[in-house]
Amino acid sequence: xxxxxxxxxxxxxxxxxALDGVTLKxxxxxxHALLGENGAGKxxxxxVITGLYKPDGGRLVLDGSxxxxxxxxxxxxxxxxxxHQERNLIPGFTVGENILLQKLPTSRGxxxxxxxxTEAARWLAELDLDLDPDQPxxxxxxxxxxxxxxxxxxxxxxxxxxxxxxxxSITPNEAERLFRVVAKLKNDGRAVLFVSHKLEEVFxxxxxxxVLRDGASVLESGPLGDLTRDQVVDLMVGRVHEALxxxxxxxxxxxxxxxxxxxxxxSGHADVDLSVRPGEIVGLYGLVGAGRSELAKxxxxxxxxxxxxxxxxxxxxxxxxxxxxxxxxKIGYVTENRKEEGVFLEQSVxxxxxxxxxxxxxxxxxxxxxxxxxxxxxxxxxxxxIRIASPAQLTGTLSGGNQQKVSLAKWLAAKTEILIxxxxxxxxxxxxxxxxxxLIWDLAANGLAILLITSDLPEMITLADRVVVMRxxxxxxxxxxxxxxxTMSQRVIRLIHAEGTTAA
Length: 504
Fold this sequence. Notes:
Elements: E1 2-13, E2 16-27, E3 30-35, H1 42-49, E4 57-62, E5 65-67, H2 72-77, E6 80-83, H3 95-99, E7 106-107, E8 110-111, H4 113-126, H5 142-155, E9 160-164, H6 172-187, E10 191-195, H7 199-205, E11 208-213, E12 216-223, H8 229-237, E13 258-265, E14 272-276, E15 281-285, H9 292-299, E16 305-312, E17 315-317, H10 322-329, E18 331-334, H11 338-342, H12 349-354, H13 358-361, H14 370-384, H15 400-413, E19 418-422, H16 430-445, E20 449-453, H17 457-463, E21 466-471, E22 474-480, H18 485-497
Parallel strand pairs: 3-10, 3-11, 6-9, 9-10, 15-20, 15-21, 18-19, 19-20
Antiparallel strand pairs: 1-2, 1-4, 4-5, 7-8, 11-12, 13-14, 13-16, 16-17, 21-22
Helix pairs in contact: 4-5, 14-15
């Protein structure tokens, strides 16, 4: 039985046809994959379905009746739940309040705190998630916040559940927990839409698939069991995807640009030692909660360093903030959270890229010549292959991959010499991921010192020259990378589970 149908849906933006006659059919008791490259229209379609965007053509049908949603609240009230790729929790609220936000229990006109705790605990238990409903969401890790988002969507008892990159920021164990919940929803007769760039997950849990390319459906509701991985990738990109082959690159013998010696932080790091030389990619690997992103932020002055020494170009430094890191030490940081920290969504592409170099371009009385800014922006748009209608386009209207390129462009424009890149390809399709890998490789070949943080072990093994493994905010050991996946994965995993600090 068809629970939901998006029939020949169009969506237009200035200079862009984001959706061109897209059809999506979701059946009761089925998990349906929605696939496509970044910019193919997946997130736009979800925003149309959930009332964030009004379609410019076509129709939406729920349970046999045509519907029109003017807001996400109307969509949710009709029985459509959604977990967006970017988190939408309210920072000032608790875990329980966020989960039950659509229908907060009350007693005699007041919010019933006891009922919130009881009801939220039920949905947390559905995910086997051991969290206190009274805990502020600001204290959650990225993975925990993502799972709370899923509990929030389940709490409205949706007949249709849309999952947009739900596993992008969670561990494999947490993903398996989510897949068990998805299987239960399927057995209960609900329709689940699963959007992911991880094809191994798609083939593991999905029954049918719709593939979008350039805003149009190139496959509508095809049985996934009839397709191979290469056939799916071919549908997504228009050709069979070839394995990435990177050119040879030699790390020059040179003193480190960045060194940490016995570093401790207010977040709990202790005795952290690592170094990065010019032209070198040093990987920082560990499970979610290992403290990798927190260490990066401490290096930028966003957390207090309580012990040890940080040296840049051989000199001990105390970095006060991101501005100090960039202006005085030429350190840039491509954050994992591009939506909230990486780019200004409501500002133009031009402004986002130029923001780090206004001081350099500024003339007398603070005037920034438009011609100089435009030339600089055009250089990096072309270099990184950023797909835009014009430099004036709002960054929030770009695909996730292009937003990530804009985030990277602003640091390259600032002529950084040390670049910290945190989860560069989360939520990015296979072809764009390859483009990022080539770009990072080329940046190192041109002398940039790169500290790479990624939870994607194949990505780490593809790119890093050395892999530093962390657990519980400490360095477990270091592995020289021979780029052989089988041997490297075994050595890295052994370090993650090893007791005490070891070398490999």
